[in-house]
Every structure is written in C-alpha cells, then in structure tokens.
Specification:
Low-confidence stretches: 1-10, 25-53, 156-162
Mean pLDDT: 82
Shape: flat
Order of helices and strands: HHHHHHHHHHHHHHEEHHHHH
Number of helices: 19
Structural class: mainly alpha
Largest sheet: 2 strands, antiparallel
Distance between the termini: 100 Å
Helix content: 40-55%
Strand order of the largest sheet: 1-2
C-alpha cells in the first residue's frame, strides 16, 4: 500500500502553537495582577498623620462646616477672607476676641479689626460668644492644616488606567487568531491527504450535483411570492403608522443647556424641593424658568464644586462643575473675589424641554396645588437626571388615561362636597376619578 506520509511532525507543531498561545496570556495576566499589590504599600505609607497643635482638627472641621462655611472658605475669598493659615496672620488671643464679638473690636478702634472689616466690604461677622477657647483652638487647628496637593489630571474615559488590560486583551485575541489559522491550515492539509489516499487506491471522488438556486425556486413558487408581498405590505403599514403617530412626540428629548444644571445633584443629593426653583408652579399656569437670582441664593457662597469624582452622584469632574458655576457668575455679573456685582449681565438662552401645542391648555397650579400631583408624575424621577429630559410622551392618550385612573382628592374640600355626594350616588362608589367629573371632555383641555 502506498504511504501517504508521516503527519506526526504536523501534530507536534500544532500542539506547540496551542501551548504557546495559552502561555502568553496567562503570563501577561499574572504580571498585570501583581503590579497593584506592590503599589498598595506606598499608598499605605503615604497616609496623612494627625495634625499636631493645640486643637483637634477633626472637631474643628465640624465646627467650621456648621458655623463658618456659610461665609468663609479655606483657600478662597468668599463673604469673608480665606481662613487657611489664619493663625499665622493674627495673634491667638486676638482671634479669641474677634470670633466672639468682632463688632465690639471694630467699635473700640482696634487697627487690625478695622482694617480687616474694610478689606471685606464692611461685612459684619456673626458673633459667637458661646464658643470656648478650646472650640476656637479646634477651628484654628483645622485651618492650619496644609492644603492637599491636587491630583494630576486623568482621562475621564479611563484609557490610562485600563492600558494594561487592553494589551492583555490584544494578546488573547492574537492567540485566538493564531489558533484559528492553524486549524484552517490543518483542515486544508487533511483534505489534500484524503484526496491523495483516494487517488492512490483508485477511488473516485463524487462531486455534488449542481442544484437550482434558492432564489430561482422561490420566484417560481407563486404562492410564496403572494404571501411575502402581503406580509411586507402589512409590516410597512404598521411601521408607517407608528412613525406618523410619533410626529410631535418628543419623549426622551434632552437638549444641552448653555449652563449645565444637574438635577441629580441639586434635587437628588442636596434634596432641594422642585418648587423652590419653580415656585410659580403653585400659583400659575406655567412652572416658569427660575431666575438666576434664585441660583445666586446659594452660589453666592458656593463658587466651586465640593464633591469629587468618586461620589456616586457625580458624572463629571470637579473642574467641569466649577467651570459651569463660573458661567453663572459671568451671566449675572458677579465678582467672587470682590464679593459684589459688576453690573455686566448676559442673558442665558435656556433650551425648552417640555412644550405642549398651542391648542392644549394645561394649568400647573390646578394640578400641583389643587390636585396635589407630584412633579415626578409627569416629569419622571428628576432627582436622578444629570441632564433633564422629557420623561412622559405628553400625548392626549397619556393625559386622558391619567384622568381615568387618578382619584380626585375631595376630603376636606367644601367645594367638592355637594358634587361628590351627587356623583357618588350616581356611580355607586366613594372614590371618584377626574374622568367621572368630566375630565375627559374635549372642552377641558381644548378651548
């Protein structure tokens, strides 16, 4: 019998490539996982030691945040001067007197007190006679701490942090491609070998008979062509109807505003009530666009973002949010260094998110104040939105369905007493929906 050839060498080569492809990724993975362990030691050694001094900086921080943070910052001027290193600028006994009653020192003509008062736009400092020397020492200890060094800027996409994983994945993909190529070569060689064996033994390889193409067979079958045409007509009608019904529906619309405002931070983390900014929703047809003076009620003393990139409610960097606050200052004409308005204002062109057609009447006060509907019912979970978007479709069907399902709050409302009694007798139920009281009539919203 004719010998086909010795293929033992080819099997050995295949096994060698498989072992090599599996060894490289595991070696790289071991090197990548070992690096962070070695890096943990310096981080532990670099932990900050407790600050030395007469006071406790931890307790001082608590007192500073509760009593001083409204008018002072550590490293920037606010209503009052920056307080970091204040112990190096003034005598400790002088600071005791100043904190307890600064106005008394100014009236007495103390030179340092008068100068400090004039440098800060004659802003009167709140007296704190209840603070003991130990409390003031704690605050001084906190303000005497060395300012932390800002971390180097990093790429928000995390490309630098994940460079090791990227190279490891590249090696794994390369190994898989190599294995696939080896398998393809192996199949080609096996096919050639089988054909040679068949030729050596006088066997004839039967070739597959040509078949009619699937497309030609389909065209000849008139029944399948008719069914396909009907299905395509029905499907296109369905999608056309769905497209036409979405005209004017802007659900999910989330425009980029000229000044980034995070509802997640303001309404979510800080718990600011919706009607604090949109106060006209209680008494007016529209909720209104809050004036920038409302923003300045807080941001007059909040000139930079206090969070960090590790916070769960933060989607951008601290520098990004601080830059948006500066846009607010530029619009209202506020000088944070001098703590006064410059008089140079710029209009902010907010982009409207929710916009009903002109032929639809909707009154916010009727729903918010009278009906007691929560803002989230129509606007969705705004306290979780980094960028405000339209949550509901605001279609007629959506509004009518709400009127059919929402019970009217008639308890304690003399206006509804007679109406409630008559309708309860008519419909035989105590709970009445807005639809039972005419909430689905055309004239309620279209007139």
């Amino acid at each position: 019998m004719k010998k086909v050839g010795n293929h033992t060498s080819f099997s050995r080569i295949l096994l060698f490539f498989l072992a090599l492809s599996l060894t490289i990724p595991f070696t790289t993975f071991a090197q990548d996982t070992a690096a962070p362990v070695a890096a943990e030691a310096p981080a532990a050694d670099a932990a900050a030691a407790p600050a030395e001094g007469a006071g406790d900086p931890v307790k001082g921080k608590e007192l500073f945040n509760s009593l001083c943070a409204a008018c002072h910052k550590l490293d920037a001027k606010s209503t009052g001067p920056a307080l970091r290193g204040v112990a190096d600028r003034h005598d400790r006994q002088w600071l005791y007197k100043w904190v307890r009653n600064s106005s008394e020192m100014i009236k007495a003509g103390d030179p340092a007190a008068v100068k400090l008062f004039a440098e800060n736009n004659n802003s009167v400092m709140t007296p704190f006679p209840q603070l003991s020397d130990a409390d003031i020492d704690n605050i001084i200890a906190y303000t005497s701490e060395v300012a932390p060094t800002p971390p180097p800027p990093t790429d928000n996409t995390g490309a630098a942090a994940g460079s090791g994983d990227g190279s490891s994945n590249t090696l794994i993909l390369a190994a898989l491609v190599l294995v696939l190529v080896v398998l393809i070569v192996m199949l080609v060689l096996v096919n050639r070998t089988l054909r040679r064996v068949a030729a050596a033994n006088g066997l004839q390889v039967v070739e597959a008979e040509p078949r009619v193409s699937l497309w030609k067979a389909y065209v000849k079958n008139q029944f399948l062509v008719l069914v396909t045409a009907i299905l395509l007509l029905l499907a296109s009608s369905y999608f056309l109807y769905g497209y036409l019904m979405q005209i004017g529906v802007d659900q999910g619309y989330a425009p980029v505003q000229p000044i980034h405002f995070s509802h997640k931070i303001h309404a979510g983390d800080n718990g600011i009530d919706c009607k604090y900014c949109h106060s006209s929703a209680r008494v007016s047809k529209t909720s209104g666009i809050p004036s920038l003076n409302v923003c300045m009620n807080c941001h007059k003393n909040i000139s930079e973002f206090a969070g960090d990139k590790d916070s769960t409610y933060v989607d951008h960097s601290k520098e990004f949010y601080t830059g948006e606050i500066k846009k607010l200052y530029d619009a209202v004409g506020w000088d944070p260094a001098a703590q006064k308005y410059t008089g140079k204002q710029k209009p902010v062109k907010w982009v409207r998110v929710h916009n009903l057609p002109d032929f639809v009447y909707f009154n916010h006060s009727q729903h918010v104040s009278v009906a007691g509907v929560e803002c989230q019912t129509c606007h969705g979970p705004v306290e979780t939105m980094e960028i405000m978007s339209q949550h509901a479709p605001l279609t007629m069907g959506w509004c009518v369905n709400c009127h059919r399902e929402t019970d009217v709050k008639v308890e304690g409302n003399d206006y509804y007493t007679k109406i409630h009694d008559e309708l309860a007798k008519k419909y035989g139920k105590q709970k009445l929906t807005a639809a039972d009281m005419g909430g689905t009539e055309c004239g309620k919203c279209h007139y």
